[in-house]
Amino acid sequence: MSLAFLLTTLVVVATPGTGVVYTLAAGLSRGRRASVVAAFGCALGIVPHVVAAITGAAALLHASATAFQVLKYAGVAYLLWMAWATVRDRDALGVDGEPGERSPGRVIVRGVLINILNPKLTFFFFAFLPQFVSSGEPDAALRMLMLSGVFMAVTFVVFSAYGVLAASVRRQVISRPRVMAWLRRGFAGSFVMLGAKLAVTDR
Fold first, then answer.
1. Is there a contact between 154 and 5 (Cβ–Cβ < 8 Å)?
2. What radius of gyration, in Å, describes the C-alpha atoms of the chain?
3. Are 116 and 50 in contact (CB under 8 A)?
């Protein structure tokens, strides 16, 4: 494993995106445990993209404009739904909420869906992983799996750090209803902007 791979992975993972926004929201609304669970869900959502890239399904998706558009707009719709749910559900970032009220299963499922419905991840792995695997390497698929595992581990650690940091200021934040209201709008706006960004991206 090269230093270049680790540095590139760290930069890609640490760049704020839908997973970071979701993990931050989980940390602020439900505490440290929920933020770690959310980070796990986001990391788990990478698995289908890894499988697609390694099996060559990404090449088929890349060749089919229709398949790409369907997956892309499914992702956009989900992000917009997340924005609407964040504004509508006052308990999502509620002043009276206690850490762990939302079941871990629901937190994980949302995190998984956020990453599954992002076709850019598939193309990222399709273009990213081969750069660190020699074309003539006999165990190329195994090496790609190993590198993908490292990418997922880094995702989990970085996202958890974001969430735990947010959870550390949770008590100071939730005691201020007006701040919570603006946070809900801010997170909703972030999901809308990320959805708009995904909607206008091309392959």
1. no
2. 18
3. no
- Spell out the per-residue pLDDT of the chain, length 203, in tens: 677 788 878 877 887 778 888 898 888 888 889 999 999 999 999 998 888 877 875 666 666 777 677 767 877 887 787 778 767 765 444 434 444 456 788 889 888 988 888 776 777 777 677 677 765 667 777 888 888 899 999 999 999 998 998 888 877 766 566 766 776 777 778 778 877 877 877 65
3-state secondary structure 70-117: HHHHHHHHHHHHHHHHHHHCHHHHCCCCCCCCCCHHHHHHHHHHHHHC
Q: Which two tokens stand for residue 90?
A: 């006052």
Hey, what are 144's tokens?
A: 């790609």
- Distance between CA atoms of 66 and 69, rounded to whole angstroms? 5
Q: What is the DSSP letter of 130?
A: G
Indicate the pTM of the whole model.
0.71
The amino acid at 19: G
Closest CA to 39 of 23, 25, 50: 23
